[in-house]
């Protein structure tokens, strides 16, 4: 299952934990209840999760997703002042985040005269981070954002096999290890159980960037040893996504500081707590494919995307006065797609090439932090910002007659990519009776330019000679923007009418 398929599941875990403890939580009170927990103090804990992202080998034109499990431990310290919580956390994890891609091009026919098979593998073996955390606490909930630095220990391997039609064979086997230090941001929610234990779920984004890996190793020609090869390969990892669940144990006993009393929520609906929901809507966007863009021909290689979307969402809110802060994860299947047909003359052979482009978004996920305010007794108005991830498919098919020689060239290529970008949005949510609410929302997504490798077949019919071979015609760098319009319904595990007497 892809990395972002877990965004909702970590929220569900926290929500079910709260539901199991719901009998201990007050629904209504004439006065603000005494705090149930103070987050100040030192804690230790463990975590496990799933992570992944794209690995882009620039020179070798290999672009593939890497993903896998991770597990580790953390230690940190918090200080709570009124409803605000600040802290520092040190975290380490072993990971199995890895991926690979193998691309074969050419054939033994009269036009290609040989084949080349290239294979690349990347693995993140371990990660460590130091981050600052800040957030808002209410009842048993603590919603936080975090930022800091992450270090990653990585291993890369590359294998190349070249075989020509005349019996020659070259084989290379290269490896490299490296350490990367990168900025990281994230957000999450933690729920206090009875005693000193708490459970948490969080999302982290790590921008490992581009770094040159010095791949070295032996090579052979027709079985004979050649001098060792060294290939300096730039490898980009602009977006690594981590989803984690964990448990913490607070050391010592910390009393609530009476100097800084908690801030009461506003009268009316109390939005504090976990929620799950469903949503649907429509998306519009614009796609650009770099290898086909022609400045002299505006619009070439760029086209519109549109279609339906629908899925599930879940999150946690914390309310302090009229202010509401929260986190949310969303997963949507989509029918968004678009395409373009291009024509162009071939002055050498005298024909006209016709190329059909097609792109589709299979699924789209968003992890975001939300902040807003309560208007009246039941209306929540909010803004949001976070990270979007999409699984996409791209294809191109070309037919080109060759009138000068009475031949025909056809090709069909396709590729997949996991696209990452920035998401911002705004919406309004209205509390109905009981535990239900309805919402309307707009999101804008700006995807980072993402490389992907298209592979397929090229068939040449040149009269007396024919050939068919595998091709990987360069790296297509895709960029896009999306506009999403959504309606949804949420179920809140705490009944919304909190009925606190006074507004802060």
TrEMBL record:
- What keyword terms does UniProt attach to this protein? Cell outer membrane, Membrane, Signal
Localization, per the record, is: Cell outer membrane
Q: Which residues form a coiled coil?
A: none
Q: Name one Pfam family in it.
A: OMP_b-brl
Domain spans labelled Outer membrane protein beta-barrel: 21-210, 279-464
Cellular-component GO terms for this entry:
cell outer membrane
Which range is the signal sequence, renumbered to this chain? 1-22
Taxonomy, superkingdom: Bacteria
Give the family per the record.
Answer: Belongs to the Omp25/RopB family.
Q: What is this protein called?
A: Outer membrane protein beta-barrel domain-containing protein
The organism encoding this protein is Bradyrhizobium nanningense
């Amino acid at each position: 299952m892809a990395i972002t398929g877990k965004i909702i599941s970590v929220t569900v875990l926290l929500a079910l934990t709260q539901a199991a403890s719901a009998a201990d939580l007050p629904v209504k009170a004439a006065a603000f209840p005494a705090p149930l927990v103070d987050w100040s103090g030192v804690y230790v804990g463990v975590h496990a999760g799933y992570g992944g992202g794209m690995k882009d080998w620039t020179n070798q034109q290999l672009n593939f997703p890497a993903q896998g499990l991770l597990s580790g431990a953390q230690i940190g310290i918090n200080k709570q002042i009124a409803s605000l919580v600040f802290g520092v956390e040190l975290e380490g994890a072993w990971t199995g985040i890895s991926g690979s891609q193998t691309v074969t091009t050419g054939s033994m026919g009269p036009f290609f005269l040989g084949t080349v098979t290239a294979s690349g593998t990347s693995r993140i073996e371990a990660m460590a981070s130091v981050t600052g955390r800040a957030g808002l606490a209410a009842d048993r909930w603590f919603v936080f954002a975090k930022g800091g630095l992450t270090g990653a220990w990585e291993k890369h391997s590359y294998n190349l096999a070249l075989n020509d039609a005349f019996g020659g064979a070259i084989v290379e086997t290269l490896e490299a290890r490296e350490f990367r230090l990168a900025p990281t941001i994230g957000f999450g929610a933690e729920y206090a159980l009875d005693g000193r234990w708490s459970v948490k779920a969080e999302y982290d984004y790590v921008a490992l960037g581009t770094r040159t890996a010095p791949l070295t190793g032996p090579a052979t020609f027709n079985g004979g040893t050649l001098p060792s090869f060294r290939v300096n390969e730039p490898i980009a990892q602009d977006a690594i996504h981590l989803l984690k669940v964990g448990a913490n144990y607070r050391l010592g006993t910390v009393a609530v500081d009476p100097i800084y009393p908690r801030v009461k929520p506003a009268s009316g609906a109390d939005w504090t707590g976990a929620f799950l929901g469903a949503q649907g809507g429509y998306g519009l966007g614009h796609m650009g494919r770099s290898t086909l863009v022609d400045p002299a021909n505006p619009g070439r290689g760029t086209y519109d995307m549109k279609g339906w979307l629908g899925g599930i969402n879940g999150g946690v809110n914390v309310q302090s006065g009229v202010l509401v802060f929260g986190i949310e994860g969303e997963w949507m299947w989509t029918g968004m797609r678009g395409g373009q047909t291009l024509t162009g003359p071939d002055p050498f052979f005298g024909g006209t090439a016709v190329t059909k482009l097609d792109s589709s978004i299979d699924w789209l996920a968003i992890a975001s932090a939300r902040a807003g305010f309560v208007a009246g007794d039941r209306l929540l108005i909010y803004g949001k910002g976070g990270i979007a991830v999409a699984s996409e498919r791209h294809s191109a098919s070309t037919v080109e007659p060759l009138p000068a020689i009475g031949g025909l060239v056809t090709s069909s290529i396709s590729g997949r990519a996991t696209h990452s970008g920035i998401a911002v949005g705004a919406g309004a949510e209205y509390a109905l009776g009981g535990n239900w609410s309805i919402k309307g929302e707009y999101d804008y997504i700006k995807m980072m330019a993402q490389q992907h490798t298209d592979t397929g077949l090229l068939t040449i019919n040149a009269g007396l000679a024919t050939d068919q071979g595998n091709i990987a015609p360069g790296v297509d760098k895709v960029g896009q923007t999306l506009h999403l319009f959504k309606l949804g319904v949420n179920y809140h595990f705490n009944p919304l009418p909190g009925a606190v007497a006074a507004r802060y």
